[in-house]
Each structure stands twice: as structure tokens, then as C-alpha cells.
Design brief:
Number of helices: 9
Structural class: alpha+beta
Shape: globular
Largest sheet: 5 strands, antiparallel
Distance between the termini: 34 Å
Strand content: 15-25%
Number of strands: 18
Order of helices and strands: EEHEEEEEHHEEEEHEHHEHEEHEEHE
Strand order of the largest sheet: 6-7-12-10-11
Helix content: 25-40%
Length: about 350
Amino acid sequence: MQELHDAPLAPLTTFRLGGPADRLVTATSDEEVIAVVREADDSGTPLLLIGGGSNLVVGDKGFAGTALVVATRGFVLDGTLLELAAGEVWTDAVARTVEAGLAGVECLAGIPGSAGATPIQNVGAYGQEVSSTITEVVAYDRTAREKVTLTNEECAFSYRHSRFKSDPERYVVLRVRLRLEDAGGLSAPVRYAETARSLGVEPGDRVPLDAARETVLKLRAGKGMVLDPEDHDTWSAGSFFTNPILTDTAFTAFHARVRERLGDDVTPPAYPAGEGHTKTSAAWLIDKAGFAKGYGSGPARISTKHTLALTNRGGATTEDLLALAREVVAGVHEAFGVTLVNEPVTVGVSL
């Protein structure tokens, strides 16, 4: 277990932003993770958990407490059952499942971060969500002060949400267990229209696992969503805002604002999101509110490849980033009456 003091956090985040932590500890086993968490809880020290750093916005003043890097490793495959240590690099784990000929997470390729973060956000992309394959999550319960195992149902998964996200101070994810599918080297049914078009198949078709993974990686790279140190469009947290889910009443009012602003022939994106609710596109809202790809004149700008990503062009501060985010939120609300919600976790700052 490594310990540093007054340690910079910016290099540990994909934004490359944020000030130092009073104390930075790197744990390589579940036991070390639990020991550091218990020590912080016993002493009343603020605790920040860091995995791949792909979903963190750390304030310029840093973190006054203990930052714990979860660097545990473990990939155990038993038939179609997979157990991942929280510190496993997610995109590497996806590649290994594809190599093993197992389907279920192949369209989640290229997503930066650690395996332990995936159930917290209920990570999803290109028609797949981890909640569809997760069977159990092993975590340390800071309230009960014991290791617990939560079933899929107990995780209370929903769109980019979970029990862990709703109660962020309680659980520390240690292990993620998934049930994958042996479809003879084929993918799960392709659900996302863009993926199906790129593959030249119909939604619901299956394709070779390698083809599904490679297609998703190409699609993500084209949007600046695959990490590349030389590409500032990837100095981001991926999608900065979640897609809004509106009640029927709110969606009707939103649709009226769209017609008023853009004309009667413009129809906003709309996807079923449960009874009485409709999901629309945050990227569409941002673009139609006047924030195009590359928007901004300072060191923090909208990606040149995707309107949903806010980026550090080099030399930005966290306040630069937040100023841009606030401008986008205000502009979308003024244009369409919809309030965007940030997807990354903010530390010591807020929108």
C-alpha cells in the first residue's frame, strides 16, 4: 500500500484537472481498501474514492482528506460467470470477455474507468447496460461496517443510477459479478440503431463478437470517446450530461418550446422511458440551443467531435470547465425549459 501527501489528483483524472489531496493512498487488495476506509471513518476524515478517474471533476483547491485509489486486480472466469475486482480496467476486461467468446458487454468497449465504477453509474452505451449482466456486487458497507453482497435487484438499477449512487457515502464496491452469454462467438442482439447501421445488419441481429466490439470502438473514437493522450477531445469525462427523462406533461411543454423556437416541422428525439415518461437527447438539446461542436474560446471547450463532451484543451482549470458547463445548462434551460444534469461526480465544487 503506497501513501503520499499533498499529492496531485489531476493526473488521476481523464480531465487532468483538480488540486492536490492532503493524503493519497493506493490499495491493491480488498483488505487494504477496507482498512483505509475504516481508518477514515473512525477518524472522521473525508474520503474520496478513485478508480479510473473518468467520472471525476475535482475542484482547483483539491481535496482536504484521504483520496483512496482502488488498484485491486482480479479477473476470474468460470463458464459464463465472471468476477471482476473493482480496480480492473473496464475496457481491458471487456476485451478479455470477447476473446473468451462471451457476449453481454461487448458494446461497452472503450468506456474508460474501472470495473468498480460500472454498477454505480449503471454504465451503458450502444444498446447495452451493465445492469443486464450484473448478478451481484460485493461491497463494504460503511454503515454496517461489514462486507456485504447485493443482488442485482438490491442494487436498484435505473438509467445511469443505482443504490450506490443514491447513497454515495455508504458503499465501497469491491467486486462485480456478471453472467455473460455463450452464443457461439456471436454478440448479444444488436439493439442500437447506429451500431446496426455501421455493421450492416438489422436491430436484433447478432454479429461476431469481434465485429461488434471493433465497430463500437470506431464509433466511440469518432466522437472522441476513446482515451488518447494526444487528442484533447478525449481530455473529458465522456458524456458530461445525462439524457433528460421528462414526464408526459413536461415533454408536451418541451415539444411546444421546440416548435416555437425551431418550427412546426421539427420533432425532438423521444424514447420510451417507463410509464408516463419520455427520454430525450442531451446532445440534441445542446446543439439546438446554439452550442455547436468546438464551442468556446477558452481552455475549456465543447469537444470538436461531440456536443455532449466538455473538454480541457490544455491549461484549463476546473473553474474554466464549470463556467462552460453552467453556460450550457443556462442556455438549454432558456431555450427549451429543460435542466441538464451533470453525469460526472463533482468534488469540492458544484454546478
